[in-house]
Predict the 3D structure of the following.
Amino acid sequence: MNDVVERIAEEPSEARVVHRADVAVVGGGPAGFAAAVAAARRGVKVALLERYPYLGGLASGGMVLVLDDMCNGPEVTVRGICQEMIDRLAKHGLAVYPPEEERTNDPAAYRKWSRWGVFDFNTHYKPHPICYAAAFDPDGWKRVSNDMVREAGVHLRLHSWFSRAIVRNNRVVGVVCESKGGREAIMGDVVIDATGDLDVAASAGAPHIAGAYIVTTVFRLGGVDTDEAERFQFEEPEAFAKVDRQAKRIMAGSWDYWWLKTPLPGIVWCNCPHMIGFDGINVEDLTRADFEGRDRIYALLDFVRAQMPGFAKAYVVDVAPQTGIRQTRLLEGEYVVTKEDVANRVHFKDSVARGRDYYTPYRAMVPRDIDQLLVAGRHYSATSAAQKMSREIPPCMAMGQAAGIAAALALDSGVDVRHVDVATVQRLVRDQGGDPGDVPAANATVA
Ligand SMILES: Cc1cc2nc3c(=O)[nH]c(=O)nc-3n(C[C@H](O)[C@H](O)[C@H](O)COP(=O)(O)OP(=O)(O)OC[C@H]3O[C@@H](n4cnc5c(N)ncnc54)[C@H](O)[C@@H]3O)c2cc1C
């Protein structure tokens, strides 16, 4: 954060109460969207608030275009609303994933599928095994989420920037959003913070820590001959390695596969350049990151057009409207998930969501000290190191689905969300097609 040199007192202000819901979800990214749909399907009145004019968060506006971390070997561990999203996208021709028989470590499968980004990047050998994961289109995500919130009867308020939690006697009773129409209050008996940056819980005074990780200005290139680019990679590996190394040097920060195919022919997404030293909730840092990222992107474009087979006619389609922020504030909730928990696949009795091979306890979504608030998504209660290993879109959706169900159950049974019956949450997650992780897999460490 900037050093504060001066402060001014603001006039006391009022907000117009524009809506009363049973459950108010703040943030329409993967976690918030899943929370809202899950709660509404349990029959409660749900309001979903989002600052941007579309749903999806990093999955659409951040153009993070592969759903991964959702299988433990051949077992698919994230189902429910996440799987429903994939099925609906696939019906529109906007999601691509390998069929079961091609999820192998056969080199031919790797050649066919690796540029879709659907391999297990947690293995330390190559070729990485092809696994269950899905490449998708960002606008398709927006379309499908609109369909799903409409069908579920969620009251969606886009263009609503959360600014303040309304807290009475340590209970969150609503939120204030800034909008073109002025300050608007949305009241909720339960509030779910799905802002990714813990905006609501921090405003409510819930204990949290400051996390940080690399920041990425994701972009897409069009006009790419992907067949030629893949031929070059697999048939001229030494020449490819040399050019690819130079491209990576120009970007100064990327994963091994810096471009991946998308369901749109000739358009690739580039999960790069990665940059360090930026705080994802600091306006000046975010502004500098945009300039720095774009400089690197245009330098890369010049290079690949001149040097990389398949990229001669490439052009920038778009730089993601949302900066690629992976980690900022993290909740210090009733339980804080550690790196060892994730790495050792520690199973918790109160697991309500799964990722790849790890489990999320309900307590990691419950703040200390503040009542009637749940936290779902990438800002959940984990150490910085643990979050880096467990923050992909599918597990965030699984957390969101569990939080939505828990919120509705708390209201139905007349208890605070802190005291909800977790065994019932687990059963209801299963009823909605999800996997709460109540049954430990064979490779789990039972706590
Ligand atoms: C560059 C990058 C690459 C990644 N690669 C992958 C990948 O390949 N596969 C994968 O599965 N995951 C990947 N991830 C991780 C994944 O994208 C995120 O962890 C995931 O999207 C988190 O979901 P979320 O709903 O918790 O948060 P977000 O996606 O951040 O959604 C938060 C939502 O809340 C809204 N919001 C925030 N603040 C406010 C406010 N004050 N008022 C109103 N609304 C607000 C935002 O606009 C947004 O819609 C990547 C992340 C990044 C940044």
User: Anything to note?
Assistant: Residues 283-307 form the longest helix (25 residues).
